[in-house]
Design brief:
Blueprint (H helix, E strand, L loop, with lengths): L1 E4 L8 H14 L5 E5 L4 E4 L5 H4 L2 H6 L3 E4 L7 E3 L3 E8 L4 H17 L5 E4 L3 E4 L2 E11 L2 E9 L4 H8 L4 H14 L11 H12 L2 E4 L2 H15 L1 H6 L4 E9 L2 E10 L2 E9 L8 H4 L9 H7 L14 H8 L1
Parallel strand pairs: 1-2, 1-11, 3-4
Antiparallel strand pairs: 2-6, 3-5, 6-10, 7-8, 8-9, 9-10, 12-13, 13-14
Helix pairs in contact: 1-8, 4-7, 5-6
């Protein structure tokens, strides 16, 4: 297997490494290729996933965590500089054989470190019964790309908060659950992260190839497809959000149709008393990003109680957010 290396040492965006996989699969001669990479805190979700179901968007944005869509299926994962990403480009496509073959190579590399590693379930690698790696694959022409995570010393709480929808009860349960079933390799290995990477390189690859500057330019051109908003958000269908709460104006239910965090339609039901027409303020929210601040700015200066008896702006925002 040929290990692919870069002619630089700086860390690139996650999208650059996804583009590298695709570039190798599309242009390099038929052979087995392997490379490892690390990124600044990032979330990557599967080709067919709804972003809002997978990411705590408020937390991600507040903590400058980048987010990307990949072209393979599977679930949402978190990566940072203490998580090693593994990428394989194979010379053929037979999904069951290819996926198992390359994950078993990783398992054997872990066993060579003295770890009790197994390939388990659909796409996981376990050590001592705890998950250390999740993986996915997809087809490019006649070839396969197999890629996955390898937890070395990732902050598990940050990981859970980044990829759990914004619900504190779910987050708290998620952190506890992850700590019971997920493990960092650092807890079992007697070697540094760099030593572990060198072990994986030497165990899995017997040849090396350094990419040229022309390769890098071609990869950057492919990377643009991963950064296109139509690719990142395009798979997101319209979806509904319903909020219901009792406030001074009555029991009110507000339902939204959203696409890519933007309000497309809105409706309000409940046992409230009408004074005017609620559509006067509800229509102002169409086309507005689904966030408390954006709603507050859109409705600034409006007296909602002129349309719904006893309804204040603050109560309305409390219902929704």
């Amino acid at each position: 297997m040929i290990y692919i290396d870069y002619p630089f040492t700086e860390t690139k965006r996650l999208s650059f490494y996804l583009a590298t996989e695709e570039y190798l699969a599309r242009t390099f001669p038929d052979d087995e290729y392997f490379f490892m990479w690390q990124v600044a805190p990032s979330v990557i979700f599967g080709r067919n996933q709804l972003i809002e179901n997978e990411i705590n968007m408020a937390y991600v944005k507040a903590h400058n965590i980048a987010f990307y869509r990949r072209k393979s299926g599977g679930g949402c994962v978190y990566a940072d500089m203490s998580n090693i990403m593994l990428s394989f480009v194979t010379p053929g496509f037979h999904k069951d054989f290819i996926f198992t073959k390359y994950l078993m190579k990783v398992v054997d590399a872990l066993k060579a470190c003295g770890l009790d590693a197994v390939f388990s379930g659909r796409n996981d690698i376990l050590v001592d019964g705890m998950k250390v790696s999740g993986n996915a694959f997809y087809r490019v022409n006649h070839r396969s790309i197999v890629h996955g995570t390898m937890l070395y010393d990732t902050d598990l709480e940050v990981m859970v908060r980044a990829i759990t929808p914004d619900n504190e009860k779910l987050i708290s349960k998620g952190v506890d659950s992850v700590r019971q079933r997920v493990m960092n390799l650092k807890d079992r290995l007697g070697m540094s992260l760099e030593d572990f990477k060198e072990h994986m390189r030497s165990f899995l690859a017997d040849r090396y190839r350094v990419l040229t500057q022309a390769d890098i330019h071609a990869i950057e051109a492919i990377e643009e497809t991963y950064l296109n908003p139509d690719f990142i958000y395009g798979k997101n269908p319209n979806y509904s959000v319903i909020r219901k709460k009792k406030v001074a104006a009555g029991l009110i239910e507000v339902s939204f149709e959203l696409k890519n965090e933007v309000v497309k339609n809105i409706n309000m039901l409940g046992d409230y008393f009408l004074i005017g027409d609620p559509d006067v303020f509800l229509n102002k929210l169409k086309g507005v990003r689904f966030s408390r601040l954006a709603f507050q700015e859109a409705l600034e200066g409006m007296d909602l109680s002129e349309h719904v008896f006893n309804l204040s702006l603050n109560d309305f925002l409390e219902i929704v957010f």
